[in-house]
Write a structure and sequence with these properties.
CATH architecture of the largest domain: Orthogonal Bundle
Distance between the termini: 51 Å
Helix content: over 70%
Number of domains: 2
Low-confidence stretches: none
Strand content: under 5%
Radius of gyration: 18 Å
Shape: elongated
């Protein structure tokens, strides 16, 4: 069983790398199997289709974000921004993969879910009753942090997080760090 799990994890790792580099639609299962030195039928043993493989790569991020937004209570906005940045940083390769090929959002039914997550985060940050201007600033803050995780994914976390969180806090009009 461990060998099967190892092979599955190796397939996911190689697929993730190729999906990030080339896009989902430009990556064939043959390329993945060739890179791994396994046959396509061996790959199909673990994943019924490319869509199944993509889902297996994206699903941990979806579950983490779902847990994050469902399990949070309103609190310190700066802490929420820091924790959210850590979450998106942890899944930055998957975010790059999805953003690179927006059709992935459609066939994984992620588009509306992502908007729901953002609305929940904005409510956690600013409460239920907010102005349109505050809502727009929160959208810029959260979107900007996600963009930083994608754009600067090649840099070390400590070079990106503090600057991104500070910019998000400024967009929200939060006071500077204590």
């Amino acid at each position: 069983m461990a060998r099967q799990t190892d092979t599955k994890a190796r397939i996911q790792a190689v697929a993730r790398e190729l999906f990030v580099q080339q896009g989902v639609q430009n990556t064939s299962l043959r390329q993945i199997s060739d890179r791994l030195g396994i046959t396509k039928p061996a790959l199909y043993y673990h994943f019924a289709s490319r869509d199944d493989l993509v889902r297996s790569i994206v699903q941990p991020m979806v579950e983490d974000v779902e847990r994050f937004v469902a399990g949070r209570e309103p609190g310190d906005p700066r802490t929420l921004l820091e924790d959210y940045f850590d979450l998106i940083w942890r899944h930055r390769e998957v975010i790059v993969m999805v953003v690179r090929e927006m059709s992935t959002l459609a066939y994984l039914d992620l588009g509306e879910r992502m908007f729901d997550w953002r609305r929940r985060l904005i409510t956690l940050l600013l409460g239920e009753e907010i102005t349109q201007a505050a809502h727009i600033r929160a959208t810029v803050a959260l979107g900007g942090m996600a963009d930083c995780a994608v754009e600067y994914a090649h840099l070390p976390l400590d070079e990106v997080k503090d600057v991104a969180v500070e910019a998000a806090a400024a967009a929200l009009g939060l006071p500077g760090p204590a």
